[in-house]
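Team,

Forwarding the record for the chain on the shared tracking sheet. I've put the sequence and predicted structure together so nobody has to dig through attachments.
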Amino acid sequence: MFVQRGSSRSRVVLAGALSAGLVLGLSACADSKDSGGTGTVPASSLGAIDCSPYTAFGDIKGKEVSIYTGIVTPEDAPQKQSYKPFEDCTGVTIKYEGDKAFETQVLIRAEAGNPPDLAYVPQPGLLQRLVATGKAKEAPAETAALVDKNFGADWKAYGTVDGKFYAAPLGANVKSLVWYSPKEFTDNGYTVPTTLADLKTLTDKIAATGKKPWCAGISSGEATGWPMTDWMEDFYLRLNGVEAYDKWVKHELPFNSPESTKALDAVGDYLKNDKYVNGGLGDVKSIASTTFQDAGLQIIEGNCSLHRQASFYAANFDKNTKVAENGDVYAFYLPGETADKKPVLGGGEFVLAFADRPEVKAFQTFLATDTWANAKAKVSSGWVSANKGLKVENLVNPIDQLSAKILQDPNAQFRFDGSDMMPAAVGSNAFWKQATNWITGQDTKTTLDNIEAAWPK
């Protein structure tokens, strides 16, 4: 299961999956690749790599590099395995420290002058705050060159602060997905939509059969409402474009601007329509009381046909459920207004250094290579990268492969989860709460005005 580690939402998402006893994306058990399983393979299968790029950093044998991250058990195991080729090449030892309190503690450590060599930062906003401590180091030229080669300009921009490049991307996730039943589509002659108009046509076609097309749930304990923020962000990107989205996230456009109204009303066309929701679960208001983990399971039960949720939702299906294009359940890209427009909502992590010793620079450079991305793909599941050199066939399961194809599409315009970049008073408070109120009957204007009023002055 891949989530945005470090954010308050991601901890709730992961905790919910664990408490429900769901299948995690990094099980120690090896299921078959064809079944959409979630197994890993031994690090020994990675083989040797070209060590020549690391000779430029001098004799670093016997040195140690410390990593601090919110990626914890069980997801830490494949992370550590993927470092072995670098350790074998250079003789450097990677000291790994995972901490669920990473987001708070990494700031404390940086401000106290006791930072790690490297930190895996899950949010651009947190990255900016860490750079502001004055303790972070710009990325070495070797790393920057690899990011220019292997990643899109949008990803490099998230690792750049005040015009200086600090942090290469690490992992990624895709939120712009709609889950569905391949068998139902085949049996009924439904086709995967390639535009928003197609999505509406498909929805109406399913509704005409008397079935509720969509199922949705936004209940998530203290984080109730967060799935609604993703819905709005996805539609904001599609209806207003990436430039307006960037301004909205930075509050250069007010939260209650016409662009926001357009996006939320478009979401309402689906989620506040009793003919469309909530398959197998109730009426519109049932969305607020249905957990996000349970909602999409109605596809398997045959009670709904469509569920908008991120790539990490795969972890919620029973281990006997085949998650694949020809399986029990799969997903398609939530389309843009036209087939050639590919806005992508998602998240990821960035590698930020607090030391500029040769061994640290060498490891930063390794993590920016397609060599590392492919090694990581081979030893884990529920993980993907936006690295253009990542070979899709090396990914373990079909949803990872789908996510990689979306991220690598030359037309893709990736944007980070907006609520995770907004001030906490908005992104993880007012936005969540007001979106929940909107689902249960509050009008659009009141909802957006209340969120705007919460923005720190």
